[in-house]
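Final report, Chapter 2: Outcomes

The project's central promise was a pipeline that accepts a single protein chain and returns its three-dimensional structure in a standardized token representation, suitable for archiving and comparison. That pipeline is now operational. To close this chapter, we reproduce one record exactly as it appears in the project archive, with the input sequence first and the structure output second.
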Amino acid sequence: CNKIITSNHPGPGDNHGCPFRHFSKEQLITSLQQQKLGEEDIGSITELSDQGHCQLACTRHFEITHRARLPTTGASIAVERIIHPNQYYDQSVALVTKE
């Protein structure tokens, strides 16, 4: 993630980048709405993104989009901080195959 976050914005024809870093706020909100996230969830993600906490925004997105499958520890959801796109994928697959 650090390399992606600190690199130049993707240009035309590029297929990489971090939506929490490279999308405008409007683009990010539209993308999250298209994923059927609620306003409160969108607000929590965009707030982190606005503050430059891209990895935390990504982790929050993971928590929200996987909340039905995540184990809970008390009042919180147990999830590792997402620090690489492959980690997001691997954790998603692990949750689905665990069922």
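Archive annotation: The first helix runs from residue 2 to 6.
This record, like all others produced under the grant, will remain available to the consortium after the project formally closes.
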